[in-house]
Structure formats: structure tokens, C-alpha cells
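Please, structure for the following, as C-alpha cells.
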Amino acid sequence: MYCGFCGYQLPQGATVCPNCGRVTSPVVSNSGIAGESSPYDPTVASGRSSPQSIPATSYGSDPYHAPPPSQQYASGPYNMPMQQTPYPPPKRRNRGWLIGLIVGAVLLVPFLVCSSFFLFAPSNPAPSPTKVIRTATTNVTPTANTYPPGGATLVLNDPMSDNSKGYKWDEATGSRPGTSNDTSSCGFSGGVYHVSETQKGGLFCSPEAQDLVFGNLAFEAEISILKGDSAGVVIREDQSRDAGYTFFVDTQGNYTLQMSDAVNNANNKTLRSGTNAAINHGTNAINLIALVANGSTISAYVNNTFIDSVQDNTFANGQIGVYGQSNNGAYDITASDVRVWRIGNALPTPTASQNPYASRTGTLAIDDPLHDNSKGYGWSEGAATNNNDPKDISNCVYTKGVYHISRTVAGSSFCFAGAQDLLFTNLAFEAKITLLKGDGAGLVLRYDANKTTGYVLIIGMQADYQLYSFNYKSSDPNKIYTLLTSGTNTAIKRGLNQTNLVAGVANGNTISVYVNNQFVDTIQDTAYSNNGEIALFVEGNNGEEATASDVRVWRI
């Protein structure tokens, strides 16, 4: 086999050309057959700034489908089945308003739920689960807000063992008239607060003390599902119209962030949903659930781990509450150790030079509209032809003020910013990507040209995303690419000729994905924490082309 870049005859098994240092085809270099061609041979190039043609990201073995026998190339990652939203949002039952407490043995109190009045009577909730230890935060006092942006004032701190703190949590039990077997309850028992119902439904309970109305806040509570499907917290609740935001988790590790409005049905929608390994599974498991609202940014956390975020300004302020729900019978959830911080001022909108992604820190290192190469970042320019297949041409080229990345046959290609000093470990990298042809396009981070390792984030035409680590020197073709996370997200614009603002953020071992300013996913990975190059990427199974513009990179 000969090097496709400099023509040097390669020794048997070589993965890097000893003459020019470029990567050889993993298929042929491992075969030991000199001169044998492969559809994945690198294309001809004269220098580092030329486009790189690389194997499709599921090269060698698609974990979901075997490639069709007639297909020359290994199937790409877009043959994988889509991961659908795992948990449909339940109908939230309107708690309405609660205007009295149980005094003495029994007291009648009106309680509006789904336009029905209940009769209150004592109840016997299930015992509380075993207490778990909160994750410690270094140099943080018990009253300090541990959630971004920090700097808030603690205004509610309640172990929820009883109602002695003066926050006036709802305490009442009620039965729907004519249905005595359906009893709902909010109250303290066994040193914790219970929200329960003897039939399927949903219920939230609130503190009713004055001044407990919040706009910008961080609200956390330890929540356990003793019986039922899901539980969580409510913020910015307007009880007069039963409107607000609810974040809840279920016993399977799924989460949902939704908004509800009994007056305007257009406001009843799921904003975010998915699964996360930070969520403790099963009944009796305790999760520290937090919801942070700061201006139009609403962020969810579980067990001190960031879960998801959304931009929405429908509801500006309101009460808080805890929530329980079941689709299949009775439920009983508990809440303890509730804390609320009032955030004084919403975060300002970042300027053009500020990193808009978590952790919102870093120095702007690249700011390029990509109209041409005049900014000095040294983006790859030119065409590269495969010596073994003259029809296999990769291109990195500016056309009509837009940067194009393309390849004429099945496979993939990426184009680098090749100027000196453009090596990044911790960074936020964003670009506007438009897929014109093919299956997907995206970003490459932490690419080590010597080890040929890094990460690639791909946004597909089916509103799907995939994040891989890769190692082109792997002796096992099945381990060249490792899928770290994948799924679908409504923030991604579907189809060809759609422009998505794609961002990858690497900070230590945390790699996060954003599309169109919306958080999509995050993973922890320790494979590659080195300095590396950045690049723009495209792939497909029958030729591919994408454009890129408005690239910005912040060095964190």
C-alpha cells in the first residue's frame, strides 16, 4: 500500500506514513497487503490545510443494523434507530386553592380539583424512606445557593418534619363528593411531608405564607416516590388559573419539564424530557430535585447534577409547590429539606464576545463569519482526490461567502482551522451548520493529529444527534468510534437545507451539546482530555455536503 498523501510505500501494518506523518487507512494498513485499495483510503493532499477524508462513524460494525450486502461502505451512524422521548407527560391535576387547615379532629375546607369540591378528613400516609446524605460542596455553607448563578438570598429553609417553621404548608385531606374511595391529602406524617391520593391522578401542595411568591429563584427539595409514577417540584404557580412550570422525575430515571395553564390550552406543553443517569431509580429512592428560574432561563438539576434547560418567558412569577402523580393507581410521595433562594437580578444577555454556554466563562479565541479566509485562522482550502478512486474528491472551499465541506462518495470529511495556537482543551465551540446533502454534519473537538483521537458531534437531518469519541489508530475496527450519547431533540431543525447553531462544550471530563441555544445533552468521558484542534465535519452514505458560518470558540 502507498501513502495517499505523499506516495511513499508503506511498511506492512503501518497506521501512519513514516515519510509525511499522515494517517493511513485503518482497513488496508491492518491487512498487510501492499498496494491494495480501499474505499477508506485517504484522499490525495499536499499539506495540513487540505481536507481530511475519514471512515464513516460506524465503520466496521453498526451496533444496530448490519450494512446491506450490496453496500460498499460500512453503514453510517444514521442507520441507528432514533431514541424517542421515553415518558409521556401526565395530565397535571389542578390543586386549585386551599384556604384552611385541619384544626382539632375534622374541619371542612373547600379544595378545588378538576372543578370538583372535596371533603377533608384524616389520612394515614405511608412511612417515609431512609434518609440519604446530600452531596457535599466544598467551601459552601449550608445556606449558600449551590446552583448557578449563585449569589442569591436564602428565604425558605425547612426540614419539612412539621409545620412549625411558619411557611404554612397545605395540610388537608379530601374526598371527591360521591367517590369516597378517591382521597387526596397534603400533610406531615413520620417526620416528612406527604402528597398522596388513593386513585390515579396528580396533585401539588404549596406553602401559603405571605411573601412566598418568586420570580427568579432556586428551589430544591428531597423527593421520594413511595408509591406511584413520578414526583417533583412546581415554580411560578398562579393558583387562580393553575398555571406554572413543573419538573418531575419518575421511577425509571426519566424526567419531564412542562408548563401548564388551565385558562390557555396553548400553554399546556412539554418543554423538555429525557433520561439521565443522575436520577435514582425505583420506589423509595430519594432524589434531590431542583428547579432554577432566572429571567427566561429555566434549568433543572437532580442530585447536584445539571439535567436540562429551556428558554421560556410565559410565566414570570408565582408560588412554589411539590408534586406527585400516578397513571396506574394510588400514589404517595414525600418531600423534605426544602430550600429556596431568591435571585436578585436575572443574568444579563451575553455580549457578542461572551460565552453564552455553561459555565459562561472563557476568552473569545475565534470569531469568524467564514465569508473567506481573511481572518487568519487558516481554515483548510482546496480539493483532495483519492489516488485509488478519481471520483472520490473531498473539498474545503469558500463559495459565495460561505464555507463548504464536501465529499463526492460515501464516507466523511472534515476541515480544520489550522493556524498556530488554535489548540484547545476546555472550550465552547459553536458554528451555524447547514446540511445540503448527506446524513449529518457537525463539529470535531480535541483532535490530536499525532494520536488521531478526539470527539465528533453530529447533527442529523432527522432532528437527531450523536456524540462519539474516536481513535483512528485502534487495532480493532469496531472500536475506532465509540458512541457516547445519542437521541433526538425538538430544538434541532429537521431536514436538508436547515441551519442549526451547533455547539460543543468541553470542560474537564464534561462534554455538553447545545443546538440553537438550547441544552441538548451532556456526558462524562475521560478518554481524551488533551489539547486538540477543532474542525467542521460532514458525512453521508452517497456523497455529502454542508456549509458552515459564524464560527466562535471560547477558551475556558
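Confidence is low (pLDDT under 50) at residues 13-50, 55-141. The domain at 112-131+147-342 is CATH 2.60.120.560 (Jelly Rolls).
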